[in-house]
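Whiteboard transcription, Tuesday session. T.W. wrote the structure tokens on the left side:
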């Protein structure tokens, strides 16, 4: 299993850098689309070819998943964003999302595709593979940390920012796990959650790289993740392979 994880992660970085190079060479503005988001997805598709004897199957869209699950995947991030707005206004007496004049609204057209590109890798392949070997909480922590560290462009914001970003991404991963684990790790459900997170991030575009905002963001989502774990404890403490 460790070999699979390492190969996937190396491929995710490799494809991310290649796509980043293509975007730069083609002078494609990041205000319109972000090609490197498909790095994890291409890594997942490559893993299916390299290790096809594993029999791993990506579940992009699963029949029988209730519409309420898709709705929850959209509403939970929206609710988290609203809570962050209210807390920021209450604690700091200033708008949570700063100046919206420089927001790259053109990215809204790319957001669904970018979310699918990432979720094919993080949930469709990596988390589904780890779920057969580790309890839900342990696999979520591993995937969350790897997902966070893949965002190398944020390293420049400093160690404190990165520490809270790690907390944020592991918290996201825990909530997404609870939404997709009984759907075969449905990529569409995960992508809807991811897409809504990215949409709310557009509203915080001017402050997203500030340490204070990242601290508040991470702590709110850590609280949400704790509630999810406590209310569905068996889901996170039992190995799925033994069920």
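and on the right, the sequence the group agreed on:
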């Amino acid at each position: 299993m460790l070999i699979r994880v390492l190969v996937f992660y190396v491929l995710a970085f490799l494809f991310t850098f290649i796509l980043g190079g293509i975007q730069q060479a083609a002078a494609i503005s990041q205000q319109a689309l972000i090609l490197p988001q498909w790095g994890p997805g291409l890594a997942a598709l490559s893993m299916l070819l390299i290790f096809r004897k594993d029999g791993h199957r990506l579940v992009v869209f699963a029949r029988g998943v209730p519409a309420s699950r898709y709705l929850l995947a959209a509403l939970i991030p929206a609710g988290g964003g609203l809570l962050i707005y209210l807390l920021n206004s209450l604690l700091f007496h200033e708008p949570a999302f700063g100046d919206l004049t420089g927001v790259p609204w053109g990215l809204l057209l790319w957001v669904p595709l970018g979310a699918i590109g990432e979720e094919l890798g993080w949930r469709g392949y990596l988390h589904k593979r780890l779920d057969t070997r580790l309890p839900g909480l342990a696999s979520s922590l591993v995937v969350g940390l790897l997902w966070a560290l893949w965002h190398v462009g944020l390293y420049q914001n400093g160690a404190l920012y990165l520490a809270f970003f790690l907390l944020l991404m592991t918290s996201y991963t825990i909530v997404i796990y609870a939404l997709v684990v009984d759907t075969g790790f449905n990529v569409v459900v995960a992508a809807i959650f991811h897409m809504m997170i990215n949409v709310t991030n557009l509203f915080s575009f001017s402050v997203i790289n500030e340490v204070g905002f990242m601290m508040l963001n991470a702590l709110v989502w850590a609280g949400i993740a704790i509630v999810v774990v406590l209310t569905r404890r068996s889901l996170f403490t039992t190995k799925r392979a033994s069920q």
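Someone added at the bottom: The mean pLDDT is 92.
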